[in-house]
Amino acid sequence: MLTHQGLLAGKVVVVSGVGPALGRSIAVQSAAAGAKVVLAARTPERLESVATEIRDRGGIALAIPTDLTDVDSISSLAETALAEFGGVDCLVNNAFVQPAQVSLLDADMASIQSGIDINLLAALNVTRAFVPALTEAKGSVVMVTSMVLRNQLPGFGAYRIMKSGLLAMARSLSIDLGPKGVRVNSVAPGYIWADSVKNMFEKKAAAAGVDPKVIYDEVAAGADLRRLPEPDDIANAVVFLLSDSARAIAGQCLDVNCGHTHH
To answer: Contacts from 72-79 at CB under 8 Å and sequence distance 24+?
Structure first.
C-alpha cells in the first residue's frame, strides 16, 4: 500500500505522455510519493493499465485519453482534471516520439514537423492549459528532455533540435511563470534501460554476433557509474523537482545519465 506521506503528499500531478517505461514510472512514483495522478496519453488501454497499477498499490489515479497534438483535446484534459480534483499542483510533460536516426541533411521534413508537434508544441499547449491552476497552486512543471542535448552522437539531429527547443521552452517558461510562483525545470535522461534501448542493443548485438551484455558494457563504459539509468532513476529526479524540497530550483536542467555526459 502507498503511504501517501511522501514528497508529493496532497498534491495533484498531471503526467502527459504515459508510455510503458518512463511515463509509467513517473506516474507510479508520483503516486508512491503521495500524489493524486492524472494520466494523459492517446491510448486508453495503456492509461488504464497504469491507473489500475496505481490503484492496486493504494493510490489515486484518473486516466484521461488525450490527443496531445489537438488543443481541444488538451482543453478537455484540463477541464476534466480540474473538475475531478479541484486543482492541479504539478505537471510533467513527457510525451515524445523519436525520429529516424539519420543525418539531419537526409531527414524527412514531414517527420521533423510531426516530431516538433508532439515533442515541443504539445508541451507548450499542455502547459498553457494548466497555467491558471498551476498559478493558483504555486505549482511546478517538469519537462523531460534528453541526453542528446549534450552528446555528439550522429543521427540524432532532428531529435536534438526538438529536445533543445524543449529545454529553451522550459527556461523561457520559468522566466514567464516564476514571478507567478510557478517553478519550471527539466530533466535530461541518458540511455534509459527499458524496452526501446534493450531492443536496440539486442539488434546491435545480433548484427555483431555477440551477447547483448557486450553492447551494454560498451555503452555503459562511457558513464562514470558504468551503468545506464533505469526509468525509476529518472522518475525519482522528476518527483524531487516537483516537490517542495526543490522550492528554490527554477529554470534548471538536471541530467540523469549515470555520468554519461557532464555540463
So the answer is: 74/122, 74/125, 74/126, 74/129, 75/129, 77/14, 77/16, 77/38, 77/40, 77/126, 77/129, 78/129, 78/130, 78/133
Give me the active site residues, please: 159
46: left (phi over 0), alpha (psi -120 to 50) or beta: alpha
pLDDT band of residue 262 (cuts 50, 70, 90) is very high
Q: Please give the distance of CA 65 from its chain centroid, rounded to a whole number.
A: 17
**DSSP output for 91-149:** EEE-------SS-TTT--HHHHHHHHIIIIIHHHHHHHHHHHHHHHHT-EEEEE--GGG
- What pLDDT shows up at residue 2? 43
pLDDT reported for residue 5: 56
For every residue of 201-251, DSSP letters joined together read HHHHHHHHTS-HHHHHHHHHTTSTTSS---HHHHHHHHHHHHSGGGTT--S
